[in-house]
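Tokens as discussed.
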């Protein structure tokens, strides 16, 4: 089977099998009841991997067979001292949280799509001087803390 997935980040959860399978004590209260709203325990970490280079689970709900860290060797290298992320619906949360942790304001960018409002990108920074990245665009953070956007292909759906 040929992998037709493009080289883009995807989030996977890594940790002990007991934690992944919700058998960790953090998922249960003192009476052994399920704690509502606890989706991950403290032993699980979200990691970014390349969707194309990594080998996905063979069955629904299975484990990744092999993972390659993001960014992979197939992506354009980052300019010296810069960080680059490609914004997609699946990388949106990770990028939003990462930039927010840098102390930079971010906000979902909405537009009308097929007669309904939908998130189509990410606004970075405060007005004036903010930038807007649409799905498929590359977000570049420069050593001076500034951001630029490199336009991606016309449409990204994953």
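Sequence:
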């Amino acid at each position: 089977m040929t992998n037709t997935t493009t080289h883009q980040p995807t989030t996977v959860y890594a940790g002990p099998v007991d934690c992944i399978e919700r058998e960790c004590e953090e998922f249960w209260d003192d009476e052994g009841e399920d704690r509502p709203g606890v989706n991950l325990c403290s032993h699980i970490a979200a990691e970014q991997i390349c969707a194309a280079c990594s080998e996905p689970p063979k069955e629904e709900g299975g484990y990744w067979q092999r993972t390659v860290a993001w960014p992979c060797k197939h992506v354009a290298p980052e300019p010296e001292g810069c960080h680059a992320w490609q914004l997609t619906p699946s990388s949106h949360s990770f990028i939003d949280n990462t930039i927010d942790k840098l102390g930079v304001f971010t906000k979902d960018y909405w537009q009308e799509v097929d007669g309904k409002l939908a998130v189509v990108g990410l606004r970075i920074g405060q007005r004036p001087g903010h930038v807007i990245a649409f799905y498929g665009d590359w977000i570049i953070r420069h050593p001076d803390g500034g951001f630029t956007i490199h336009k991606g292909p016309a449409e990204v759906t994953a």
